[in-house]
Structures are given as C-alpha cells and as structure tokens.
Design brief:
about 300 residues, alpha/beta, Rossmann fold, about 35% helix, elongated
Length: about 300
C-alpha cells in the first residue's frame, strides 16, 4: 500500500463523528466532542459490521456501466465503503481519502489482503486545492458531503476530478439510528425519540447541509442525476452482539449531545441503559433493533 500523503487537516467527518452518530456514523455513521479517533474507529467498524448487507446492496445498485478501474472514496473513515467497492469491482484500484490518521491506519489493517489495490491519501476535503487523486471513473462519498463547508465547491471539484462519463455516488443518512422499541424503557417510554428531538435541534445549527436536496445540488454542479434510491434498514430482534455494542456506543454519543435538553428523569433512565454493570443495560436487552434510512444519488459527469 502507498503511504499516506503529507496533507493534514481536520477530518471531513469531524462534525459527523463528533456531533451525531457519524456512521450518523453514521461511516455515520457524527459524534459528540471528546471522543478520540480510536473510539470513532470502533463505532465505524460496528456500523460496517451491522449494516454490511445494506452497503453491499447500494454498491450493487450503482449504474456504473463498464466496471471502473479507478475509484475514489471521499471521507472514507475506517473503510466500509472502500472495502465494499474493492469486493464489488475486483479489477479496480481504490484511493481512500480521509484526514484521520487513525482511521486510515485501521483501514490499512483491514485491507491487508488488497495490497496493490488500495491507495491511502490523508487530506482535508474542505481545502481549496485537493491532492492529485487521478481521474477516477467512480467517486463514492458516504455521509461526508453534508459536512463540507462549501458543498457546491466540493461537488464542482468532484465533477472536474471524474473521468468523462464517470459516476458520482453520494450516500447520505436520514439521521441517527433508532435501537429501542417505542415503549422503552419502562420507566421512561419514548426516551429515544426525545433524545433525537434534542439532537435534531442541535444539528439544525451545527450541520446546516444535513438533509439537503442533493439531486438539485448535483444538477447545479453540472452532473446528470441518473438514479436515486432510499435503502430502509430495519433489523429486528433477535440481534447479534454487534448490534448491542453498536447501540451502546451510539447511545453514549447521543447522550453527549442531548443531555442538556433532557429532564433529570430521562437522564437517569438513559444512564441506566448505558451502565454496563446494570441489569437494565442496553447490552442485556433482547428487544433491540436497528432502524434508519440511507439515500443514494447516482450522478453522471456528461
């Protein structure tokens, strides 16, 4: 594998992974401040594990035409998209771009079997000038575009980067995943939705491009939108251990952003769920699920 480039700056997912569930992870996966990159890597890996089937379905849907030989993954995190694309297009090489050295190192570890097919580039995608990323036939951006300081400029940069006729896949998340039944927990039914309401208020100020009309933005940047698809994630019980750990890590981050808007009773109930030594811990619940949506736009450089 190639070494990371010397470009350094803040992670294109920085706000997502620190203010919401990045993968919003949610990838997207957006987490609250105070979590280190290693912790982000863990939850991104859990997101990739739990939602692997859905990522594969998105890559299979892409209207690429001829299989691409060069792919760029913008804001790759720990590489869920990069690895899925390497599997989907076995003759392709992938350039994975991110600003987090820890995330890129984790990707290198996971992609040990793809030596020669994966290039790592550390770069700030909010910078006016991007490093040389070649002329890919496919660019993939999952849960990263809405954190760009100037999405219009970034879309134009992708347009100029792509080979003529190349495809740009923009994957965005509907929001922080839901894990608990609506009537849970017993002492505070609807707690998770109240946490989400507080988080949505927070993001309205901190992440203004979240929920944008990417189809319109892509058209304005010179692309022809060839397809749009919403993938609904609804993984019900019984669940795997990974779902339990995914819920625990996600709810911890949700608490960080929502705590100031919750009542004392709600905070107490949430902390009981997060206490891994408690019989009420989310890890001991048998009714967990994963519910969220991802929308993908496929846009052609014509």
């Amino acid at each position: 594998m190639n070494h990371a480039s010397p470009h350094t700056a803040r992670h294109v997912h920085e706000h997502e992974h620190e203010h919401e569930h990045e993968h919003e992870y949610e990838h997207e996966h957006e987490y609250e401040h105070g979590r280190d990159a290693g912790d982000h890597s863990e939850i991104l890996d859990l997101d990739a594990d739990v939602l692997a089937e859905h990522i594969v379905s998105i890559t299979a849907w892409l209207p690429v035409g001829a299989d691409p030989r060069h792919i760029v993954d913008l804001g790759c995190g720990t590489g869920a998209g990069s690895l899925a694309l390497l599997d989907r297009f076995p003759e392709a090489e992938v350039t994975a771009v991110d600003v987090s050295a820890a995330h890129l190192h984790r990707l290198q570890e996971k992609a040990a079997g793809a030596v020669g097919r994966l290039r790592i580039v550390r770069a700030d995608l909010d910078a006016t000038a991007w490093p040389d990323l070649g002329a890919p036939e496919l660019v993939w951006a999952s849960a990263s575009m809405h954190h760009m300081s100037d999405p219009g400029r970034a879309l134009r940069q992708v347009h100029d980067l792509l080979a003529p006729g190349g495809l740009f896949a923009v994957v965005e998340l509907a929001g922080f995943p839901r894990f608990l039944p609506a009537d849970a927990p017993e002492e505070a039914p609807g707690l998770e939705e109240r946490c989400h309401a507080a988080l949505d208020h927070h993001h309205a100020e901190q992440v203004p491009h979240r929920g944008a009309d990417w189809g319109t933005k892509l058209t304005r940047a010179g692309f022809t939108v060839e397809g749009e698809r919403t993938v609904t994630v609804d993984i019900g019980p019984p669940h795997t251990d990974a779902v339990g750990r995914y819920a625990l890590s996600s709810l911890r981050r949700l608490r960080g952003s929502a705590a100031s808007a919750l009542t004392a009773e709600d905070l107490t109930a949430l902390d009981r769920l997060l206490d891994t030594d408690s019989p009420h811990s989310v890890l001991r619940r048998t009714d967990l699920g994963v519910r969220t949506e991802r929308t993908v736009w496929a846009a052609r450089r014509t």
